[in-house]
Structures are given as C-alpha cells and as structure tokens.
Amino acid sequence: MSIIASIPVLKGHGSTVLSAAPEGLLLERPGEELTIPGEAVARVRAEGRSVAVELRAPAGAAPVVQRIEGADETAAAAFAEGVNSLLLDPEEEVDGAAMLVLRTLRTRRSRRALRRTKWYALGSLATVVVLSVIGGVAGGFVYPVAIVPVGAITAVALGAGVYEAGVWKYRRRVRGHGVREFARPSNVPGTYLYVDGSGITRTVSAVGHGPYLEIVYDAQDPAEVFTLKPGLMQRLDIWVGTFLLVCGLCGVASLVLMTIEALAGSGS
Predict the structure, then answer these.
(1) What is the pLDDT of residues 233-262, one digit of tens each?
(2) Is the confidence at residue 132, as pLDDT, over 90?
(3) Please, which residues bridge with residue 52 across strands?
(4) DSSP H or E stretch at residue 16
(5) Torsion angles phi and psi, residue 190, rounded to 5
(6) CA distance linking residue 253 with residue 241, whole number of Å
(7) Alpha carbon 17 to its chain's center
(8) pTM of the entire structure?
(9) How many beta carbons lie within 10 A of that of residue 211, not counting itself?
C-alpha cells in the first residue's frame, strides 16, 4: 500500500494519530508508534467519529481490531475509503496481528524518571534559596554569591550521578533476571525486531552489530530492553555517572561547610 495525498491524517482523543505510511498505516499514541503493514489490513471501517482497522486473521480466528476515537467524521470516512481502495487480497492466509511492530518512544520507567526529575529540580531550587538566605543573613552577601553557583552545579551533578547509578543497577538486574532473546534486523538500518512474551513485535536500536542482536528485556515491562553485553557508550555512562556522583557529594559537603561557616561567623 502506498501513500496517496488524498488520504487524510486522523487525529483522535488522547493525542492519538492515524496516518497512511509507505509500509501501511501508522498509529501513534503517547509514547509509542504502532506500524500496521498494508498486507496485514483486512479492511478499515468508519464508524461515525471513530475508525476501526480490522486485521487479517487465520480461518476460524477472531480478527484483531485497532481503533482511533474522536476523529473528524468526514475525514474518517475519507480515510477508510482511501485505504480500502488500496488493499489487495493476499495470495496466502495471513495473521495480521503477528505482523504489527510496536516502537516505544517513552517507557513507563522513563516517564517516572521525568516526574522525579521535576520534583528534584524544585527541591534543589528551594534548598539553594534557603541556604542563600541563611548565608546572607548570617554571614553577609558573599555567601549567597558563592552558594548559588555551587548549589546549581551540585544539584546537576548529584542528580545526574544518582540517575546513572539507578540506571546501572536496573540494567544489571534485567541482564541477570530478564528474558533473553535474539533480535533480527529490520528494513531500517540500526533497528532490530524482537517478539516479547505476549507475542508483540517490538523494536530496539543498536549500532555496529551483526546479522542478529542478543538482547534481554524486563518481563514486567518488555519495552525496557538492553543488549546483553554493555556497549562502549553504556560503559562511558557508568564512568561519567560515577564522576558526577562524586562531584555532587563534594558539592553537598561544600554547601554544608559554607553554611556552618556563615552561622559560626554570625555567632562570634
């Protein structure tokens, strides 16, 4: 199925988008993209403001349906008509659900990390402000001038160091207790495909590997996938993270000493 300019892009509830792509259809949801090959589609139905993409299924099996809700009704009808006009009957029986490819852009763990980072940034800002006020009142303007830049650098270094330590610990746990698979190359250079425990085909990116890629993923969250052997960049992340963590701890010690010095000076 090829792209035709007359086929509209559908935008639905929850920031979902359904569009025609060179390889078939692309269903975009927050944090993920689902590629539906053209040969996997049995038909597309416009049902008012919703569109149902019915996949081909083996004889006797119930077809899987991918749906987008809240689209423009006129655009939905035009989309269904345009896509259906391009569909061809396969020469053999096809299981469309097995042909879907899911690409995860933001995993659950990365979304949690982003929320924690926001709270950490607010806490760090409040801490620096409080220490600056204490230092300024107790020891004079020189202390806020020193505390603000040291506090900012400390917050960044400590946060990055702790984050990298957490990532290293998580990767180590997944490599030790996760599910091991061999990912096969896709048509996109640097992208490999693997099938998780529920039968969903997912993507993983890697550079400089051979015809297959040995990977391991978290059984509780199959989108969290790593190569079995850490690459150079992952080792570099560990070294940099360790360095930043040490710098952050030294910064914390410096802030404590400056605050104590300011308080001691005010008492003398």
Answers:
(1) 777 888 999 999 999 999 999 999 999 988
(2) yes
(3) 45, 67
(4) none
(5) 85, 0
(6) 18
(7) 18
(8) 0.79
(9) 8
Could you identify the residue written with the tokens 């042909």? 99
Place of tokens 């097995």: 98
Which residues are CB-neighbours of 133 under 8 A, at least 6 positions away? 144
The helix/strand/coil state of 190 is coil
Distance CA 234, CA 241 (A): 10
Proportion of the chain above pLDDT 90, given as a percent: 55
Q: In this predicted structure, what is the pLDDT of residue 208? A: 60
Mean pLDDT of 140-164: 93
pLDDT in tens, 185-242: 888 788 899 999 888 999 998 876 677 888 999 998 999 998 877 667 777 888 999 9
Burial of 82 by CB count in 10 Å (0-12 exposed, 13-18 middle, 19+ buried)? middle
The length of the chain, given as a count of residues? 268
Q: Which two tokens stand for residue 8?
A: 């509209």
Distance, in Å, from the CA atom of 221 to the CA atom of 226, rounded to the nearest integer, reads 12
Q: Which residue has the tokens 């946060």?
A: 159
Mean model confidence pLDDT for the chain: 88
Decide: 53 and 69 in contact? Cβ < 8 Å.
no
**Nearest alpha carbon to residue 224 among 197, 198, 204, 195:** 204
How far is 54 from 187, CA to CA, in rounded Å?
Answer: 24
The answer to whether 215 and 226 are in contact (CB under 8 A) is: yes
CA gap 154, 150 in Å, rounded: 6
